[in-house]
Amino acid sequence: MFLGEYPYVMDQKGRLAIPPRFREAFRVGLVLARGFDKCILVYPLYEWKAMAESRASLPPTRSSVRRANRYTFSGAFDLELDKQGRVLVPASLREYGEIKVDVVVIGLHNYLEIWAREQWENEKSLMRETGWQIGESVEYPE
Description:
Elements: E1 5-9, E2 15-17, H1 23-26, E3 30-34, E4 40-44, H2 45-56, H3 63-74, E5 77-79, E6 86-88, H4 91-96, E7 102-107, E8 112-116, H5 117-137
């Protein structure tokens, strides 16, 4: 399970270290993709495949499904960690997330998100201000 937040610095080549405690889950491969919130999603390959399968079961006749799939899959990259546990973040994803040097890697149970540090601070501020509303709006399966 991926939990917590980890500040990191991206190197000049666009490489980012994955937190050491999570690296084993990514040894067989990982997928980086655009998140919906100006962040980069980092999925272990097996979790990405499970998510993709669930998306495949949605009706392609719905325009929202097609658009969500285009958004997710057209900007996704199948990658591997190097020997130092780093991943090369493609320039298009760095640009999308407005990521320069200072980043925060956060755990979200079965995947990670990479945020530009300033964007993450803004998101945390928003969550602090509206946390009770966020909690009330979540729908749980019965």
